[in-house]
Amino acid sequence: MAATENDFLKGCAQLGLPLTHVQRDQLRQYHHMLTTWNKTYNLVSPATIADAWSRHFLDSAQVVPHLPEGSTVLDFGSGAGFPGLVCAILKDIKLTTVERVGKKCLFQQEVVRQLGLKDRVRVVQSDVLLVAETFDVVVARAVADMSLLMSLCRQHLHSSSFCLFLKGEDIELELTKLREKMCVTTQLSRSITSADGFLVRLEVST
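^ that's the sequence the OP posted. Answer follows.
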């Protein structure tokens, strides 16, 4: 049975994320826009739309408790805005999303406009390697394996930055390969939306 908005709210409660009425309305509007736009623009896999409250929204929300208030956050390969836009709705952060596909950026920009997030969210259509900035936190979801992720985002980390990646069952193998290339410290948390998924917090050791 597909997850409902109430299932999403229960998941947020499990994460210790109380939602205001404004946040609920914003998320409901975002969900409606995703289901509407996806019919034409194929922003996410059509097979996941019926379960979007869990597969996309709750999966993204589990990043939020790990984000420092007021931090600068980069979400690259952000697609339809996951996890970044959900994080920006639920936490006071300064978010930059980077996505190469024009139709996905257009969708994100419309979500940002309609939800009134323009003062805290910037949508950039670009290759992440062309973005010349550093951020407090880098997040990514379903983008690439760990070694490629770090090769793409390493230049965006300053001395106290960390990364939050939503990953699948091959995470231990990916981390083993990554440690052959660089020294990192990691913390793994079990996903609340996938039996074989993990949220990985990663810091590059000096």
